Amino acid sequence: MYLLEPACALLVVWLYWNSGIARIELIACGGLIAASAFVRWVASLLFSHLSSESAHLDNWRWGATLLVWVSAAVMGMVVVYLNPAPAIVSPNLMPHQALFGGVLLSLTIIAITCYAIYLPAIIGYIIALTTPVALHVLLNGGSDGPVFSAVFSSVSLFILLASISVHRSGMQTLALQHKNLSLIDYLDRARGDAEALNEKLTREIFERKQAKQHLQEANDRLETIVQERTRLLESTNTELSAASQRLQLALDASNIGLWDWNVQSGDTYHSNFDRLLGYGRDRFSNFVIDMQQMVHGDDWPKIKRAMVAHFKGRTSRYHAVYRIRHANGDWRWIEDEGRVVEWTNDNRAARMIGTRRDITDDKLAEDQLRLSATVFENASEGILIMDPDFHFLTVNDCFTRITGFSDEEVRGKRVGDTSHRGESNAALYKEIADTVRREGFWEGEMNERRKNGEPYPIWLQLSAVYDDDGGITHYVGMFSDLTSRKEAEEKLQFLSNYDRLTGLANRAQFREKLHKSLALARLNRERVALVCLDLDRFRPINDSLGHEIGDKLLFQAAERLRALDIDESMLARVGGDEFTLIIDNFRNAADVEALAEDIIQALKKPFNINGHELLLGVSIGVSVFPDNAKEAQALINQGDLAVHQAKRMGGNNVQFFRNDMRAASVEQLALETSLRKAIFKNEFVVHYQAKVDLSGNRISGCEALVRWQHPTMGLLPPKDFIPLAEESGLISAISEWVLERSCRQAAQWAKQGNPVCVSVNLSAQQFRKGDIVTIVDRVLELTELAPELLELELTESLIMEDLDKNIEVLRQLRERGVSLSLDDFGTGYSSLSYLKRFPVDTLKIDRSFVEDLHNSSDDAAITQAIIDMAHSLKMKVVAEGVEEDGQLTLLRRMGCDAIQGYLISRPVPEPDFLKLLKSSRQATG
Question: Which percentage of the chain shows pLDDT scores above 70?
């Protein structure tokens, strides 16, 4: 209230500042209100310092009440003064009067909350504030004055009654508070009395404890005297007990039992017998009888001989090692030692004492050591053991067979001391030593020389052996001679990449070299010429005179080509009578025409084979990168078109590819146009060819193969439009459609309860675009297919175009759970040096090795080598193109994991494949 009334004074001054009333009077009215509030505030401060028991308390209370009345009267008089008779009903002052009335009402309500506790103060405050205003309105308010005065008086009366009600509530609250304070005071006094009683009780307990303590001290003195007298008696017993306990602990710790045998009566005492053999003491009461029953039948004679020898004095002690049956049924190895300690008068053994020890673990350790030594000496890999400074401690026989160095020759020498490679391996040895010290293990391939100086490759694994404290005690190394493996790999590399008949590069090697040449040409902005050769009149000769004559003719033709001034490494036989030549850094057509003329003249000369004089011709077609095409397959196709043109012109001539050659083929142009429309008309369909797991003889997956449902030409296989799609740049769109369609179908199968992994081929263009990972992510998310149900097939040549980049892409795909398969394996870079870097799960053996598998030992050797190599790299193998039972039998014997081919099923539409899948799973349960 002390702050509200001055605030009210300021509000009054502001409201009436421009009302016409003299501003000095306004300030005086506001100051009068603030002064009355200030006087009450000072009085309240003085009143608050009075004690509740002061004799002047009532005088001060009435004084404070009087000041409240005065403040209310001042406020009421200010209202009357600021609203003289003419202004009571003035429209201009109505807003000011309404706001001022609201302030007075609010001030009255606040006063009720502040002064309601003292009824005279609040009643006097309301009467002093409202009476001047009501009288002023009644007397000077005109015709409406009585009404306004009655309303105002009614409101004042209501506020007065409300203040009385608030006063009563406040008094009840104060009465309750006073009662609560009285109860709290009573509880505090009761707690004080309880604490006094507790303190008195504590003193009494303390006094009783002191009395008890004095009594206990007297008893303790008496007990000390008794204990002193008994200590000497107990010390001897304690020492005897301690000695006995130490002996028993020693026996327990060493797992040894004592036995005491009365030879005359046969009675026997045993200790730890239950721990050793699981029997109670009562089970072994008679030494000889019980031993004979429990000891292994082969060992009892040895015990008897050892005991008789000791009884007759031939040995100073009895010692025997034998097997005895444990209570759980096992045989345990036991070692007995003892001697006779008492003899009869006639020099017979009377008493014998000994120990019995379980040596089963020692025997097992000896057997394990013997086995380890046998493995060490007979292992098929070289084994070496070295000390912490890499000095040889011992080597096995295989080490000697591989290196030529015996155990005696290397013992005590450091590893590098036996190497013939000198400084060339010094840095490597240091790196190996640092690695194995730091990481505890090293493995890798390295080259060494035998004792006779012969070089050979090895695969070395070196491990550190640690003691209980983590210190290195030894190094153990194992190594394998990789000579045979390298030779087999080189043979496989040759057989996979070179034609067996002519020794020239085969189709796969040619394609790889062409891809590399084109990639290098793109990088260096150079041109590459592809020269395609087709022997004229070879087929009639081969059909009439037989394959043997035909093979010899092809061999001599290849020899004549070798004799020309060409790069033999770029020459290849890609088919029966088809050869190709790659010319890097091609500059002008004249050089190629001259070379082509040399080839024609070389092959025009007669061939004399088995008495036959044979004549050949050659049709030559040339296509140039990037003038004619930018992709390998397109370049090959254009070379073929040029060859066909040369044949149409009679053979023995050279033709460079021209666009009009392709334009001349109306069918091909129409086909390309239809191909572009086919993507938008949804004319492509996917057929599925089953893959069968040979271990379970059930369908484990399928390969998605695209077909073109041409509106007029019918269902076209891939070979009729895929090359054209690659040439025209449409292959990426088609491949992406096949991927999405196949994933959607596989997801539908999985939802129907027939989950099967679907394989989809990736094109080279898809990889070159660099967004294959994004495409796979989008398709998997769109189709909701589990990644493990998708397998992507790609070729070695595709990966090799940008090896490091493509390997990283493959790793990203595998991280998503997608499987990867290497298609047409054996026709490209079939080498461990590349293959071990490819993050693939499956190898697919090319059909060219499978089709003649049961007739060609070379194809069988290559296939077996591919399967063994893949399994050693933890990869699965799928053979494609299986069409005969004989091929299946051989593949199963070779350990092939799965097959694919017409023997199982042709590529079929989705409903037919689903029937085939369900039938397979029902047949295999």
Answer: 83
Which of left, alpha, beta for 895 (phi over 0: left; psi -120 to 50: alpha)? left
- Helix or strand (DSSP H, E) at 618: strand 617-625
CA 151 to chain centre: 86
844 membership: H or E segment, kind and range: strand 842-845
User: Mean pLDDT lowest for which of 108-117, 196-205, 298-307, 397-406?
Assistant: 108-117
Task: Give the separation between CA 268 and CA 832, rounded to whole angstroms.
Answer: 72
SS3 at position 702: strand
Which pair of tokens denotes residue 92? 């201009």
Helix axes 145-253, 119-140, angle to 10 degrees: 150
Residue 539 sits at φ, ψ, to 5 deg, of: -65, -45
CA atoms within 13 A on the CB side of 442: 18
Mean pLDDT of the residues in the chain? 83
Please give the helix or strand (H or E) that residue 573 lies within, else none: strand 571-573
DSSP secondary structure code for residue 316 in this structure: S
Rounded to 10 degrees, the C-alpha dihedral 769/773/778/779 comes to: 90
Number of C-beta neighbours around residue 427 at 10 A = 9
Q: Is the pLDDT of residue 64 over 80?
A: no
Q: What is the largest CA-CA distance in the chain?
A: 161
In the block, tokens 């508070």 appear at: 177
Q: What is the crossing angle of helices 4-15 and 57-82, to 10°? A: 10
State residue 379's pLDDT score.
75
Amino acid symbol at 5:
E
pTM of structure: 0.38
Paired tokens of 745: 């179908």
Q: Edge to edge, what strands does the sheet with 472-481 contain?
A: 392-395, 382-386, 472-481, 455-466, 441-449
The Cβ-side half-sphere exposure at 392, using a 13 Å CA radius, reads 21
Mean pLDDT of 616-644: 92
The whole-number pLDDT of residue 684 equals 95
Please compute Rg for the chain using Cα positions: 57
Q: Six-digit token pair at 717?
A: 């296989």
- Sign for the CA dihedral angle at 140, 142, 144, 147 comes to positive
Question: Could you tell me the domains of the chain?
Answer: 4-182 (no CATH), 254-364 (3.30.450.20), 381-481 (3.30.450.20), 496-664 (3.30.70.270), 670-923 (3.20.20.450)
* Nearest-angstrom CA–CA distance, 631 and 628: 10
DSSP strands (E only) in 367-518: 382-386, 392-395, 441-449, 455-466, 472-481
Q: Place 829 in a pLDDT band, splitting at 50, 70 and 90.
A: very low
Local structure of 339: helix, strand or coil: strand
Phi, psi of 242 (to 5 degrees): -65, -40
749 close to 914: Cβ distance less than 8 angstroms: yes
Burial label, 298 (beta-carbon count in 10 A; 0-12, 13-18, 19+): exposed
Burial of 242 (0-12, 13-18, 19+ CB in 10 A): exposed
Query: In this structure, what is the dihedral angle of CA atoms 26, 31, 34, 39, given to the nearest 10 degrees?
Result: -150
Distance between CA atoms of residues 653 and 644, nearest Å: 11
Question: CA-CA distance, 146 to 297, in Å (whole number)?
Answer: 139
Distance between terminal CA atoms of the chain?
A: 96
Q: Residue 272 has what DSSP assignment?
A: S
Please write the tens of the pLDDT for every residue from 444-499. 888 888 888 889 898 999 999 998 888 999 999 999 888 888 887 777 777 778 88
Sheet strands side by side (includes 349-358): 268-270, 256-262, 349-358, 331-343, 318-325
Q: Most confidently modeled of 108-112, 462-466, 788-792?
A: 788-792
Question: Element (H or E) spanning 529, and its range?
Answer: strand 528-536
Q: Give tens-digit pLDDT for 862-898.
A: 899 889 989 998 999 999 999 999 999 999 999 999 9
Sign of dihedral through CA atoms 438, 443, 444, 448? positive
